[in-house]
Amino acid sequence: MKSGVSGPVVDDCRLCGALGVRLRDSHIMPKWAYRRARDETSTSGSRDPVRVQEGVVIQTSSQITEYMLCEDCEQRLGRDEDYVSKLASQEDGVLGLTSLLLPGIVIKTGPSAEGIPTRAAPISHLDCQSIARFAASVFWRAHVARRHRFDGLHLWNPQAEALRRFVLGKSPLPERMCLNLIVPVDGDELTSVYAHFLATPGTGKKGEDSAHQFIVAGLLFYLTTGSQTAPLICLACGSSPHALIQHWKAIPYLMNAARMLLDAEPKGRGARALHDKYR
Question: Which of 19, 97, 186, 188 has the greatest count of CB atoms below 10 A from its CB?
């Protein structure tokens, strides 16, 4: 959903607070995420990203943008977006993170789903601060968006302000606030039906002990607070940041997404084919 404004927009930057500056028409989710969400291998109609809206599964090329950032802040966020784009599923469906994991030290850490155990891969050799800033910026952008309402996201204003300050580099995340990365998979390999899935930020649990998430091109990002946090493996503050690798059926958020796809009414041949994939 483009902002539909002709001519320059001058207002205050919502990230850095610069007054009376020309604003960019910024993507809430990165632009590359929409390209990656297209299934170029599809032979069943539209290759556009899927969206579940008001009980209907549709595929659409529309992108959510809003005038909110000055040029400097647009570039600031763009650098982290570019870094994460190299880790996400590429347009051919191959997860970029695969070639960057250290060989031989992925460890089993949790229960199995579909016979596939939860695993953890150390990623301290990657730029975890950049990954964390990317995730924080997406949650923050969705929270402050005015033109498009993200009704499923329920951040407290102080939580959003902590994210803004972290993205700007003014302060670390507060204690008991963490950002974590999960790679959903179908089996032993780092492949998933969610490689071409795009879901905007939403909340699984509200309040002081909260959990929020979004998924983009095969990478699932969690923002947690209070008792929900996992500080040891946190991207932003963890002493040993890890990416968790889980079968998608072990992740309640993705199971709920699959149920939404199955319960919703598919519109169009491409949407029906995607709907059938999750049966």
Answer: 97
